[in-house]
Structure formats: structure tokens, C-alpha cells
Specification:
Blueprint lengths: L19 E6 L10 H9 L2 E4 L16 E4 L2 E2 L2 E2 L3 H13 L3 E6 L9 H10 L4 E4 L4 H9 L11 E6 L11 H6 L3 E6 L5 H10 L7 E6 L7 E6 L3 H7 L6 E5 L12 E2 L13
Parallel strand pairs: 1-6, 1-7, 2-3, 2-6, 8-9, 11-13
Antiparallel strand pairs: 4-5, 9-12, 10-11, 10-12
Helix pairs in contact: 6-7
The structure holds S-adenosyl-L-homocysteine (SAH).
The site of S-adenosyl-L-homocysteine has 26 residues, from helix 4, strand 10 and strand 12.
């Protein structure tokens, strides 16, 4: 059973010394993809606050007496609110503890790590950030898709497909304009229809190679590739589950065929040597 982690279980340290919070990137799912520095922080922590996407196998590296707190973040369902997470980190640090905030992928890429860092800074709590392998890099490596390539992609954009209601709309024209750029959409499975439609409406050809990669780098990884024109239908019919990334761009044609299945709808795939 997990130790009692309710707020009233947080008592001040007898010495009155301030603790420290490390925002640690757990990597994309394969527990071996955490950094050595992140692992060391985890091993030394008094308290570990983790979310669903942070690989729970990593908790085996915690000290046996470390307090482990699941804040259960997942799409559309936050078992602890963001302000509740801030309050928890602040309370444990004020109690003089070494706190690891273990976050999926990299803490500063769509992980609200920036918000947590600012909340801690505002309270005068020392905070350090240990980067992690973000899902785009992990999934790219796990499918043989180079995110950049001298002949095919001079850049890569990491894009949040799912945005807060009051957030500014994505600049689809800019995203679609650069054919030499790989686009990686996070939080995109439920938005796949919209992503495909907007990119095509703004001029990206429907024949652009696209991949959907679910649970990348884990034993549950499933990856399919298709044409941009088929993205929505493939997302609806292939039974992929979150977490899932969408990659679009010419480099997707280089995917390892043993790792990425072709989702053939009514169209024939574009042979790799024609693009
Ligand atoms: N900080 C994380 C991203 C958090 S946002 C990082 O740097 O990777 C959550 C989104 O990340 C998911 O909706 C999904 O789009 C993507 N994601 C995270 N882990 C993934 C994985 N193993 N496979 C595919 N996509 C993943």
C-alpha cells in the first residue's frame, strides 16, 4: 500500500531547512530511456510525485522508504489538479524533503514543467530540471524514422494538436508551407481528422507520408503509416490507443517496414523512391 500522502501528512522538517525539487524527465515509456542523472535523482528522493505517462517501472529504483505520490495525469482526466500538484510539491519541499517530480518524456515539452518550475520559484523553493527523451525522439528511434535528414527534412516542429479552449489557433498555413519540415503532433489521436484536414486545406499534399505511433518504445508499441489523406480514417479504424503521436513528412517514408505497418485504405501507398 502507498504511504499516506495527503497534504496533512506533510510535516515541517525539524531542522527547518528548505528542501529541493527536481523536475525529472522519465523518457517516453521504456524505463531504460531515463538519463543517468534522472535515475540518480530518483534514487536519492524522499518523495516522488509521478504522473501516468512517467514509466511506473522506474519507481522500483526509489528508496524503499520514499513516499510515492501518483497524481494520475492523463488526457482529459487529472486526478490531482495542477494547482494541487504545485501545492504538494511546495509542501514537501518546505518540509525539507528532496522531491522528484517524475514526468513523462521531457518536463519542458508539453508537460507543464514550466508552470511547476515557476510556481516553485515564486515560493523561493530551489528547483532543478533534468531533461528526458521526449516522445518524438523516442518514437522516431523506435520506428526508424529520422526526424531530420539532409535530403528530406531540414527541421522539425513539435506541435500540440490538442489545445486549451482559450488558446490561439494553430498557424496551419505556416505548418503546411514548409515541405522540408517534419511535423510531430502530440496529443493528436482524437484530433487526427482535424489535423489531416487542416494540413491539406492549407496545401500539404494528401500523398504526404504520415505515421501514427502509439505507446512508442514500450512493449505495447503499435505504429502504422498511411497517406495524409487517410489520416483521420486510419486513426478511427486502426484501434490505436493513447499515448499516440502523429508524424507527417517525407522522412516517414524511411520508416522500418518491420516496425511500422502500412494501413492500406482505398489508395495505393506511394513507393518510397517516388517521393
Ligand atoms: N512531456 C512529454 C509529452 C507530454 S504530452 C514528452 O516530452 O514526451 C502527452 C502526449 O505525448 C501524448 O498525448 C502523446 O501524444 C505523446 N506521448 C507521450 N508518450 C508517448 C509514447 N510512448 N508514444 C507515443 N506518444 C507519446
Amino acid at each position: 500500500m502507498l504511504p499516506d500522502v495527503r497534504m496533512n501528512a506533510v510535516h515541517p522538517a525539524p531542522s527547518g531547512r528548505m528542501g529541493h525539487v527536481w523536475l525529472v524527465g522519465a523518457g517516453p515509456g521504456d524505463p531504460d530511456l531515463i538519463t543517468v542523472k534522472g535515475l540518480r535523482a530518483l534514487q536519492g528522493a524522499d518523495v516522488v510525485v509521478y504522473d501516468r505517462l512517467a514509466c511506473t517501472d522506474l519507481l522500483a529504483h526509489c528508496r524503499p522508504d520514499a513516499v510515492r505520490v501518483s497524481v494520475g495525469k492523463q488526457a482529459g482526466l487529472h486526478s490531482v489538479s495542477q494547482s494541487g500538484i504545485h501545492a504538494l510539491l511546495i509542501a514537501h519541499a518546505r518540509a525539507g524533503r528532496r522531491v522528484v517530480r517524475l514526468k513523462g518524456g521531457d518536463p519542458f515539452i508539453f508537460g507543464r514543467g514550466g508552470e511547476e518550475m515557476i510556481a516553485l520559484r515564486q515560493q523561493g523553493i530551489p528547483v532543478s530540471v533534468i531533461p528526458g527523451v521526449t516522445a518524438a525522439s523516442g518514437c522516431a528511434a523506435a520506428t526508424g524514422i529520422p526526424l531530420t535528414h539532409r535530403d528530406l527534412a531540414a527541421g522539425v516542429s513539435l506541435v500540440a494538436a490538442h489545445r486549451q479552449e482559450n488558446a490561439a489557433a494553430l498557424d496551419w498555413a505556416a505548418l503546411a508551407a514548409d515541405r522540408q519540415r517534419t511535423l510531430v503532433f502530440y496529443m493528436g489521436l482524437s484530433q487526427a481528422d482535424h489535423v489531416g484536414m487542416e494540413l491539406m486545406l492549407h496545401g500539404l499534399p494528401g500523398t504526404t507520408p504520415v505515421a501514427l505511433i502509439a505507446c512508442g518504445t514500450t512493449s505495447a508499441q503499435r505504429a502504422v503509416r498511411c497517406l495524409l489523406a487517410d489520416l483521420g480514417a486510419v486513426a478511427r479504424h486502426c484501434g490505436l490507443v493513447s499515448p499516440c503521436l502523429i508524424m507527417a513528412g517525407q522522412v516517414v517514408a524511411l520508416a522500418d517496414p518491420d516496425l511500422v505497418a502500412w494501413a492500406r485504405l482505398c489508395r495505393e501507398p506511394v513507393p518510397a523512391d517516388t517521393i
